[in-house]
Amino acid sequence: MTPELIERMTELSKQASGFIYPNELDVHWSIMIVLYPYLTGLVAGAFILASLVKVFNVKELQPTYRLALLTALAFMLIAPLPLQLHLGHPQRSWEILVSPNPTSAMAMFGFVYLWYLMIVLLLEIWFAYREDLVRLAQRERGPMRWLHRLLTMYSNDVSERAVAFDHKAVHVITIIGIPSAFLLHGYVGFIFGSIKANPWWSSVLMPIVFLFSAIVSGIAMVMLLYMIITPLRGKHIDMVCLDKIASFLFYAVIVDFSLEALDFIHRLYESEESIEILSDLVMNKLMLSLVILQVFLGMIVPFLIMVLIKVLRLDEELRRLLYFLSAILIQLGIFSTRWNVVIGGQMFSKSFRGLTTYKMEFSGLEGLLTAIVVLSLPLIILAILIKILPPWDDQREQPVEVQAQT
Amino acid sequence: MNRRNFLRRFVSALGLSVSGAVVGALPARGAAEHEPAGRNYGMGIDIEKCIGCGRCMDACTTENNVPQPFFYRTWVERYVMKNDGNVIVQAINKEGEQPVDPATEHDVLRSFFVPKLCNHCEHPPCVQVCPVGATFKTGDGVVIVDDTRCIGCRYCIQACPYGARYLHPERKTADKCTFCYHRVSKGLLPACVEVCPTQARVFGDLNSTASPLTRLKRMFKIHVLKDHLNTEPKVLYANLDGEVR
C-alpha cells in the first residue's frame, strides 16, 4: 500500500463516527459516478424538450429544437467518460459489451447507450439536418463543403418528396426516442434503485424520480444555453419560446418535487430499521447538499420565482433575468440531487450504526479538477457541433420546415 | 411421422438449440473454468465460543496476503450491551488487542464477539450485479472473484449487504473471502477455522450428514445475518443476538 493511501485511510478512520464495517471506510463511487447520472439526465431531458416540438407539435419551441438535439448529443458523447475514468481496469471495459452478465443491470449500459446514441440521436439529427447539409454543401467552399457533403452521406435529393420523407422520419424517430430517453435515464435510476443492500437507494420510485429530475435538468440546460448563445450571436431572445420553455420547466419541477416529497414522506411514515441512520445522515452529512442546495435553493426558490413570474406580469427584461437565475439554481439543485444519491448512499454503514465521510481528491483521475474538465467537455463539443451543424432557423437558406408547418 | 409432425419437431429442436446456444453463450466465461466438487460449502460460528482473540484475522491475512492495514476478509465485532439499552459495537483490531472499554462492568448487561466474513450467499447480490461475470459462484457454492476479469467498477461492493468486499489497493479489483478455496479444494480447512483455539468456527459440506457443520445445525438454533434480504447466507450462526446486523 502506498503511503498516500495509508494517510488517506488513517484520516478517514478518524472522521468516521459510530460503528462501520471495517471495509466501509472509503467511499467507492466518487464524484465521477455523480457526473454520470447528471450527464445522462441532461441528455434525456434535452431530448424530451426537442420531442415536444416534433411529436406534441409545440411550435413555440421550434427555435430551440435543434439546439436541444445538439445539446443532447454533446452530453451523450461525454457521458461514458466519467465511468471509464472511474474503473480500476478501464482497458477491460469492452468486456461489458462482449461478455455481459445477463443478470447485471450495469451490463445493459452499453446496449442502452448504443441504442440511444446510434438509433435515436444520430439518426434523428441526420434526418433533421439532411436538407440543410445539402444546401450548405452547395453554397460553401473548402473543407466545410467536403465535411457537409460527407455528412449528407451523399444523399443529395432535396425534392419535396424527399424532404417530406425526412420530416416523417424525424417524427417516427422522435416517437421511438421518447420511450428510449425514458429507458436511458430510468435505467440509470434502476442501477441504484435495485440495490436492496442500500436502503437509501433501494426504492421502486428511484427510476421515476431520476427521470423527472432528468427532464427538469435537461430543459433548464437548454434554456440556459439558449439564453447565453442568442445574445452572443447578436440576436434577440424569442420571448414566446422562452416563456413556453419556462412553462414546461415549471410543470416538470412540480412533478419532480411531488415525487421526491412522496419518497421522503413514504420513508418517514414507514420508518423502517434504517430510518435512524438515514436521519443522522441527512442531519450530519447532507445538510448543505440536500436541505440547502437541493431542496431550498435548487427547488423551492426557482419554483417560487416561476410562480412569481406567472402571477405578476413582469416585463421582458426582468423575466429573462429571473429565468436565467432559476435555470442556474435548478442546475445546482439537480447536481446536488445526484451527489446526494450517489455519495449520500455510501456515507452510512450497512450496519446502520455509523457514518463515514467522503474526501474528494483535488487532482488525480477521480478528483475535482478532472470533474471540472469532464463537465466542460460537452460545452466544447457543443460549440464545435454548432459550428458544423448550425441549429438556428434564421440562418437557414429556405426555412422549408416552418413554411410546411404553417 | 408425417410431414407436419416432422416439421414441428424440427423447428422446436432448432429453436431449443438456438436458444440454448444463446443462453450458454451469454454468461461470462469465468463460471465454466472451475470444476465443481459436488459439495456445498458453508461455515458455522458459535458466538458463545468466540473469545475475540483475533487469531482468525491474523491467519487470514497471512494465508491470503490481505493488504495491510484497513482491509479485511474476516473480522471480529465486539458488542457491549449496556443496562441503559445502548449498544456499543467495535471491530477488534488485528493484533487482537482490545480497544479501550468505554463501559464499566457495572453498566454492562452482557457482551459478546461476532466473527464476520463473506456469507457465500446462495443468492449472492454481488454475483447478480457484476457486469462482466468476474465474480461468480463455483459449483460447490463458494463465491469468488476472477481478478483477471474484474474491471474494478465496484458495483459488487455496493451490492454486498455485509461489507465483505473491498477494492484491492494494488490490483484495483474486488477482493473478498474465498473460504480459502485453494486450501479447501485440497481437503484442508480454511485458515481461520484451522487456527480458532475454541473451535468457534467450523467448516464443512452442507450436503453432508456427518460434518462438524451438520452437527452444529443439529445442536443449535441457527440464525443468519440480514435474513430479510433473502440472500440465504451459508455462514450459519449459533447463539446469535438480534442486535447483530
Write the layout of secondary structure elements.
The complex is a heterodimer of chains A (406) and B (245).
Chain A (H helix, E strand, L loop, with lengths): L2 H13 L1 E2 L12 H24 L7 H17 L1 H7 L8 H4 L10 H31 L2 H10 L8 H34 L12 H27 L6 H32 L4 H11 L1 H25 L4 H27 L11 E2 L12 H21 L11 H6 L1
Antiparallel strand pairs in A: 1-2
Chain B lengths: L2 H23 L15 E6 L8 H10 L9 E9 L4 E5 L16 E10 L7 H5 L5 E3 L5 E3 L9 H5 L6 E2 L6 E2 L5 H4 L6 H5 L5 E5 L6 H8 L2 E2 L11 E4 L7
Parallel strand pairs in B: 1-11
Antiparallel strand pairs in B: 1-9, 2-3, 2-4, 5-6, 7-8, 10-11
Structure report:
The complex is a heterodimer of chains A (about 400) and B (about 240). Chain A has helices at about 5-15, 30-55, 60-80, 80-85, 95-100, 110-140, 140-150, 160-195, 205-230, 240-270, 275-285, 285-310, 315-340, 370-390, 400-405; strands spanning about 15-20, 355. Chain A has about 400 residues and is mainly alpha-helical. By secondary structure, chain B is of the alpha+beta class. Chain B has 2 domains: about 1-35; about 40-240, Alpha-Beta Plaits (2-Layer Sandwich), CATH 3.30.70.20. In chain B, the strands form 4 sheets. A 4-stranded mixed beta sheet of chain B has the order 9-1-11-10, with helices on one face. Chain B has a 3-stranded antiparallel beta sheet with strand order 3-2-4, with helices on one face. Chain B has a two-stranded antiparallel sheet with strand order 5-6. The longest helix of chain B has 23 residues, at about 5-25. Chain B starts with a helix and ends in a 7-residue tail after the last strand. The interface between A and B is large, with 47 and 50 residues.
Label this structure with key terms.
heterodimer, A: 406 residues, mainly alpha, two-stranded antiparallel sheet, 2 strands, disordered C terminus, B: 245 residues, alpha+beta, Alpha-Beta Plaits, 2 domains, four-stranded mixed sheet, three-stranded antiparallel sheet, 7 helices
